[in-house]
Amino acid sequence: xxxxxxxxxxxxxxxxxxxxxxxxxxxxxxxxxxxxxxxxxxxxxxxxxxxxxxxxxxxxxxxxxxxxxxxxxxxxxxxxxxxxxxxxxxxxxxxxxxxxxxxxxxxxxxxxxxxxxxxxxxxxxxxxxxxxxxxxxxxxxxxxxxxxxxxxxxxxxxxxxxxxxxxxxxxxxxxxxxxxxxxxxxxxxxxxxxxxxxxxxxxxxxxxxxxxxxxxxxxxxxxxxxxxxxxxxxxxxxxxxxxxxxxxxxxxxxxxxxxxxxxxxxxxxxxxxxxxxxxxxxxxx
Amino acid sequence: xxxxxxxxxxxxxxxxxxxxxxxxxxxxxxxxxxxxxxxxxxxxxxxxxxxxxxxxxxxxxxxxxxxxxxxxxxxxxxxxxxxxxxxxxxxxxxxxxxxxxxxxxxxxxxxxxxxxxxxxxxxxxxxxxxxxxxxxxxxxxxxxxxxxxxxxxxxxxxxxxxxxxxxxxxxxxxxxxxxxxxxxxxxxxxxxxxxxxxxxxxxxxxxxxxxxxxxxxxxxxxxxxxxxxxxxxxxxxxxxxxxxxxxxxxxxxxxxxxxxxxxxxxxxxxxxxxxxxxx
Lengths: 285, 279
Known about the structure:
- The complex is a heterodimer.
- Chain A is α/β, with parallel strands linked by helices.
- Chain A contains nine helices and 13 strands.
- In chain A, strand 7 (about 165), helix 5 (about 170-180) and strand 8 form a beta-alpha-beta unit.
- Chain B is an all-alpha fold.
- Chain B has helices spanning about 10-45, 50-55, 60-100, 105-120, 125-135, 145-170, 175-185, 190-220, 230-240, 245-275.
- Chain B starts with 7 loop residues before the first helix and ends with a helix.
- Chains A and B meet through helix 1, helix 5, strand 8 and helix 6 of A and helix 1, helix 2, helix 5 and helix 9 of B.
């Protein structure tokens, strides 16, 4: 008897907590008339504040000193520039730590937009909204100077290399689709693990995006060099975009801000300041 | 005995019992059904359900991730099959080392104690990290470079410590009179262990041992931290490229399919032990 009573109680509890729409206020997106992009009319997570998400640790050259709020580093600067376009001054921007994996989880978000070197792809766009691209990415290969693959002139020469790459990146798909190595690549949780594997000689080469490659060779691994960058292999170029919740009412405004920064030459200026060195790596075909 | 005739009263008694059993079975069935229906209804009619279904239960994503996840899973299976054998050996040796009372062997005993203390205390993922990145960094000759091998070493070190304690508790559960009897028959310490204590101890610790192995099977996924493409990593790669969590579900399904038979076997063995003890 006691058992069936417990079941009943459980059932009651389940009914009690179920389908009540407690997100009504946030999901009823205002029919975004794209002109209403003043600060007061934006649907924000925290009223009056622009909440921007990124992962921790935040790496150079994208951020500086692992502190997004200082506005330094390429993405730090872009984030504050976008915030400025939307009408927020620096004190009205707050940062929230968002793991890459949870940036696309369903349910309530902890950010208005997320900036984390996320490449725009059609598959991903089914799950989240992307802003217009703010940076065009190229992938690059890093190896230890004097190593077997340091002198590679083409992607074909890298086929037999053991390659290290960070999980969840488009670098990984580039390795699989473009280099198509004979051996499975080693896939690491964090960029720093991949870098350590290169130092340990557990991998022959790393594949990362070009600005990261410059940082790896300049600051993280002694005696390493950029073997080369992937030539863009036709199709649409790979771009980084700001991530927003699917169906975000903010998207038209963020898009407008990115467009404005582009046409004013502001984005190019930021890129020159923080990623200026990222030119002139030889192309691998 | 076969021509035993049941009395009228006994037959009545059995009939009443049967009807009670029927009644409680049907009540249990009905309430279970009601419970399931309520849960399903509560989940599927919640406002976020369409989005959750799309993100976690997408058939198309499941199918496209399945081959990679499955091939990764074979690596998990390989890792734990090899690791389980090694763990049994390490665990047993360490447990025996801790049982040696001869003063001259104190260093061996101390080392065994230190080993169990350290490796039971350190989270498995850290052991994998230290072995996976630390050993190759030594740049010694003969250090394996294969990531699965490094993972197996790390898991063996970590789980060997747990299993050593399981074995030790089994050994200590054997009544001292057994040892005394064996020694008085003229058996040496080694022979007493081998012929009297260990056979009984091993049988007693089979259920907790299998429990540790279920845990180990899941922890093979931690080996992904040092780079090889096992099931969970393959799922993660698919999830990251599509921003959809369904591939994790595929991996979860494979792990469940593996651990459920193991769990039932543990239950079965435990029940058998109880029966044998006449409980």
